[in-house]
Amino acid sequence: MAIETPSPEGFELSPDGTHAVFRKAIEISPNDERSYRLLRLMNDLEVLVIHDPKADKSAACLDVHVGHLSDPASDNLQGLAHFLEHLLFLGTEKYPRENEYKEFLSLHAGKSNASTWLDNTEFHFEVGHAHLEGALDRQVRASITSPSLQFAQFFISPAFNVSCKEREIHAVDSEFKRNLQLDSRRIYQIAKHLSSRDHPYWHFGTGNLLTLQEGPKEEGIDSRNELIKFYHKYYSANIMKLVILGREPLDVLAGWAVQKFSEVRNLGVAPPAYPSPPLTSKELLTTVYIKPVRDTRSLEIKFLIPGTTPYYTVQPTSYITHLIGHEGSGSILSLLKRKGWANGLSAGCSSGGIGHEFLKITIDLTSEGLLHHEDITIIVFQYIQMLRDEGVKDYILDEEESLASIAFRFKEMQPAAEYVTKIAREMQQGYAPEWILSGSMLIRARNTDLVMNYINKLTVDRWRGQVVCQDVSKVPGGAFTETERWYGTPYHVDSVSPELLKRLQQIGRNPELHLPPPNEYIPKDFETGKVDTPNPQMSPVLVQHTPLTRIWHKKDDVFWVPKVHLYFRLVSPIATLSPNHLVKSILYMKLVQDVLNEDSYSAALAGLSYSLTSNMEGIILKVEGYNDKALLLLQKVVQTMKTLQVDNERFYRIKDDVERQHRNHSLNNPNILAIYYEKYLNSEKQWTFAERLEELQGITPEDLQRFIPQLLDHLHIEGLVHGNMSISQAVEAGNIVEKGLAPRALSPFELISMRSIILPEGCRAVYQRDVIDPSNLNSGIDYYIQTGFGADKTDRAFVQLMAQIIQEPCFNQLRTIEQLGYIVLSGVRQIGGTLGVVIVVQSERDPIHVENRIENFLRVRIANMLESMTEEAYQKQVQSLIQKKLEKHKNLKQETTRYWDQITSGFYNFEEVQEDVQELEKITLGTIRIFFSKLISPDVAQSKKLSVHFRSLRLPPNGSGKEGDELVLKDGTVIIKDVDLFKANSKLSAALHPTLDFLRTPKL
User: Which residues form the signal peptide (predicted)?
Assistant: First the structure.
């Protein structure tokens, strides 16, 4: 329906009558310098325009309030909404060339994407800030239009080209097969499959070849025609929300919105509604046993509750999930850990379609916990009973409201596309117009009766259990009796036993369960000392330098938030000396985290967290969040690291978890495995998961206890303190680590960084392995061309520009045109001191065939593209890359990450971006052609290529495959049979040398 008079909610008709403007002030974070205007067009399309004068990227997102729950109810045409999402971006009646949109974005530092959810479908793009609307005359002459204009046409006159139909159905099918062995997808689909047929939650949202082509064809249905019907039924302006962000003034952005989107049709449709619940008494009070692909064990207790969106000002389930998911003293998890039954627990809500939600409690079980999953269910219900008995506590509500307010007050910026997508999604939630930016974050009202009402919904007759395990002996009857249709997941459904039901109905209090104490980590000091800084400091400075410790510091002078990032690397010559040493280091870190968990969880709730991870040089310790209590948390972590006593029960619980993680590594998707082994082959020293697993099995608590003092005895400490802390506080942070661990300094010779393999000229090596999961249809290939050294700014510039030129045509050729697979990635890879161009593909086709197609793509499409490229087109590529490199950091963490990457790389080149830009401006079209012909082309003698193939066991034997497949590798290809011999016969890159002169012996 069109607007005829100003809306009573505060909209006022514009003088020209083309739209209405919301006249109330939109609530924004005090930390947000952007300006906003909310419009409603005459077709009822609601639009938020955002003026960001500092934006590097402009972006837009359109959210349609319809998703896969609105797919037709028959088994055929499942995934129709998702298929529409795919086909929509491939040309319009006004701009029919299907790749025109993505070409333009690629040439102007942009990208696009889309996603389909239960009740929403989102489409978004981002592009260099100067090209949101664009110089239309120039673009018309170049037959490339503005992205914002073409974006609008997708929702006005999409072409839905017949020529794209079959190809995009195969793209949907490839996406489905990419996820076929992912337990998260398999388990989710069983939950949907076992829901009520009176509610569309059961739908298969992804779709595949059977539902979108083969099944409909058998019934005489044209899925493209059905897609067009779906589009004309649901894609209506009145259930769309649009967000546009750019540097342009609000008047200009609003004008573009009116000009470009007023033609979107308004059908006056209503958002979906589902009067029946997704679970009924038939589906509740059951336990579903599911066999996973990976070795995982979990229990999920799911309650059906009414939707909470109408009560967003109270957020009633936030109180409940906060307490059930708590990990401190008196919590469910604390008790389960003491019993040796669980390693982790999470609680949260998810959508069951508009008007319905699920409150889910998921527990990561130990082997002993699996035996006691019914006892764990009793403990969960005992905790819920405790919540009823205790009533809603004001001090907990105070903490929740305070933390929400602090988070909103100091909300940091996100990348443009991410931000507009989030807002467009939240505009569909029914928040008051003035609260569309704050509605999901702030708790505005206190209603203890409403909170208690939701606690009282968590009853014995409203839950369903789910047990995930591979051990069939733990399944009633000793068998997974059913198989889910789409993913082939084995499962079994059992009614809740009368014994368990009786125990639940007679539930009482458990004295070991109680509410958490007040949170001591809630920050109170938010002073940043903000001053005007027209020229912010460009890099951190060295404020402490001794043989034992180096501390870098930069006071935040860009974002002015009361936050800090304390990053430390603890270099140890024995942490990764052997697979045995490495897994003991991992176990040590896991035990420290487990010991600290009850205390550190409160810190994490208050926006202050820490992590302990490992790399091949030692241990990485990070503390990040609000600076007020950061040194306190750092001190507690370091003290625990130094004084850890290995408890037997804790050790074996953690060890079992680490062993399962190592076993599961081989079940990753083939593209991930190919990437991992490519890096392994190119690294001087790295231990495979298989080598580590072998060592893990024999380690005892006594072994680990003896190892800890050896690990901490000799270290080199290097830290970065970036954020709202002074130099003296940075030095204090370094002293906390140095004095707390009290190690001796390493000698300079023990600080030599990891090196990488230098491939010989003419190298054409292939490393081949089988995918061990016999059910996985997919194979993976990582195709790497080594071109130079990371320390050389000219090498860096050439390879980055080559990757920029390759990226869009690579995706278009290998995924869109040749349909090799859903996952097609390309870019720059740096391993130690060396770097190169990489192309990764996951495909159902044989990796040998895919390698040949990659080489044909380079040999034909890229070679021809470079040969015919005009100077104007070349400069667009250069400027697109420069614009990406000069993009400003959006938040403190992004800036910290750039500094830390330079420190851990060993280069310490904090001016690398500026150097790269200067080098890029020197490269000519002629020299990039030479670079390609000498180092990238698969036909040149001196190129250096190493590829990793992971081959599905479902493929026919080598030498046979699909008709037309090229299954013979190029002449001269060497198959790597012995990895150790390959590495031993390879040259190594030089040890990484800092670009800054600070390694001379300091004066003491």
Answer: none
495-532 per-position pLDDT tens digit: 999 999 999 999 999 999 999 999 999 999 999 999 98
541-669+682-751: CATH architecture = 2-Layer Sandwich (3.30)
Question: Helix, strand, or coil here: 172?
Answer: helix
Q: How far, in whole angstroms, is CA 160 from its chain's centroid?
A: 30
pLDDT for 903: 96
Buried b / exposed e across 816-851, counting CB within 10 Å, b at 16+?
bebbbbbbbbbebbebbbbbbbbbbbbbbbbbbbbb
Check residue 102 and give its pLDDT: 85
> 286-412+431-505, superfamily in CATH?
Metalloenzyme, LuxS/M16 peptidase-like (3.30.830.10)
Amino acid 632 reads L
Query: Which residues touch 129 (CB under 8 Å, ≥6 apart)?
Result: 55, 56, 57, 58, 246, 247
Question: Domain limits of the chain?
Answer: 1-66+91-158+237-272, 70-78+159-234, 286-412+431-505, 541-669+682-751, 757-988
Give which of 697, 844, 790, 805 is closest to 992, Cα–Cα.
Answer: 790
Burial class (CB in 10 A: 0-12, 13-18, 19+), 278: buried
Q: Tens of pLDDT along 270-315?
A: 999 999 999 999 999 999 999 999 999 999 999 999 999 999 999 9
Residue 2 clears pLDDT 50, i.e. is over it: no
In DSSP notation, 655-668 reads HHHHHHHHHHHTTS
Q: Report d(CA 503, CA 379) in Å as an integer.
A: 11
Q: Give the integer Cα–Cα distance in Å for 877 and 921.
A: 11
Contact 492, 480 (CB under 8 A): yes
Buried/exposed 253-273: b ≥16 CB within 10 Å, e otherwise: bbbbbbebbbebebeeeebbe
Domains 286-412+431-505 and 541-669+682-751 share a fold: yes
238 in Cβ contact with 43 (< 8 Å): yes
- Asked: is 1-66+91-158+237-272 a CATH 3.30.830.10 domain? The reply is yes
Tell me which of 1.10.3720.10, 3.30.9.10, 3.40.630.30, 3.30.830.10 is the CATH number of domain 757-988. Answer: 3.30.830.10
Q: Do the beta carbons of residue 47 and residue 242 sit within 8 Å?
A: yes
460 contacts 381 by C-beta, under 8 angstroms: yes
Which three-class secondary structure state does DSSP give residue 574? Answer: coil
Q: Which residues are catalytic?
A: 85
Pull the structure tokens for residue 320.
């409940």
CA angle 800, 802, 807 (to 5 degrees): 95
Nearest in space to 1000 (alpha carbons), one of 548, 570, 539, 547: 547
| pLDDT the model gives residue 146 | 60
The identity of residue 367, as a single letter, is S
Say which amino acid occupies 281: S
Rounded Cα gap, residues 126 and 419, in angstroms:
11
Side chain identity, residue 827: G
Using an 8 Å Cβ cutoff, are 887 and 898 in contact? Answer: no
Instruction: Quote the pTM value.
Output: 0.94
Tell me the CA distances in angstroms from 964 to 168, 367, 810, 956, 968, one per residue in order: 21, 49, 21, 14, 12
The contacts of residue 498 (CB under 8 Å, 6+ apart) are none
Using CA atoms, how far residue 969 sits from 135, 737, 855, 951, in Å, is 47, 53, 11, 15
Q: Distances from the Cα of 659 to the Cαs of 346, 469, 470, 597, in angstroms?
A: 22, 16, 15, 21
Region label for 764, one of left (φ > 0), alpha (ψ between -120 and 50) or beta (otherwise): beta
Contact 918, 926 (CB under 8 A): no
Backbone angles phi, psi at 855, to 5 degrees: -70, -35
Nearest 5°: phi and psi at 551?
-125, 125
